[in-house]
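Sample entry copied in:
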Amino acid sequence: MSLPTVDSDNYCQLSVAERGLDEANLRDSSTIVGDMAACDTEATFVASTCGPLSHGDVVAAHAHDFGHLAYAASGALVTFTKAGTWMAPASRVTWVPPHFEHSRRAYGETNVGLLQVPSSLYPQLPEQPSVFAVTPLLREAYLALLKTEGTQARAARVTLLWAVMAEELAAAAEEPLRLPEPSDDRLKAVTDLLHEEPGNPATLAELGHATGVSARTLSRLFSNELRMSFYQWRTLLRIQRALIDLSDGKSVTEISVRLGWANPTSFISAFTTLVGQTPGRYQQAIADPETADPSDVRSPGGALA
């Protein structure tokens, strides 16, 4: 299936600074227009506001020699890598380490703010891409950094804002929503079918029959390559899609039917196990982030049967 690719001439307004810039030695910045992939060693972004991206827009695979954060103020942003897929609905921030090749896709109209992370903070962040919940304080610090022009006079303010960011990210809940992707073609044929129709109720044997691989072989591939069972992988895929649907305002009942759960109670249980709060609480926090209570979110990531 062919997906629309973002026009690199209209994708991003990028603040440019010389390579090696840090928060204590900022220079005046200029603005260029270009795709994120164009932020190479000659012109690296410090802060940029991207979008709005339309539903289905795709940013082609690329990498940077610096780590960065991507915050979707609206819509949902999915980051794809060879290591897996990370889902970031509104009010979530995605961390991508340096040299990590990735592509992105927008769901709904998506406004994205990008921040280049000072290298001194790398040790405090995961070695692979991750998605974090955004507290009100983290959001305000993030938005303030996006608006910072990067002049020497504001260096102290930028340093303070990054200190707040570091503390908030350290305390933020890392969402266990990485969906591992296979490299084996036999397994990929099955996961591709489920990506196209996550609510597909087919058993592993039925999917194997459709792709010409035995259920025993597929079960072994899921365990050895993805480190989880077929049912765990499909549940995680469905939860990722449910996050998008909740962001779009769909009801719990509608989502549970569309994504293949036997009833809303089963969906609520699986969602709460992985995300750390009920779908209703999650949807309420998206609709009114100012009043969202971080204490409502317990430690997510419980085991799935």
